[in-house]
Amino acid sequence: MRKTPKLPYRTPEEIKALRKRVDMVQTEFWAPLGVTQSGGSRYEAGRKIPRSVQLLLAVTYGSSAQSQAAIDYLRSWKA
After folding, report:
1. pLDDT given at position 6
2. Sorted alphabetically, which InterPro entries does this protein's record hold (predicted)?
């Protein structure tokens, strides 16, 4: 397995700033990740953000390079 890539959105502040920058309400921002509005609200309020959610954020909202790094990392996992 590869080393975890540098994830662009790890803190509640970074995630909330991203959501506001893309001008989305919580429901529409979190839906592509399979996270409910209430779950996303908890992450934005400071609850620990699971690595899997951080990876999904990188794939969904990261730059092309960040998205590709996260995908490559996920592909390196053994089933």
Report:
1. 87
2. Cro/C1-type_HTH (IPR001387), HTH_RsaL-like (IPR055172), Lambda_DNA-bd_dom_sf (IPR010982)
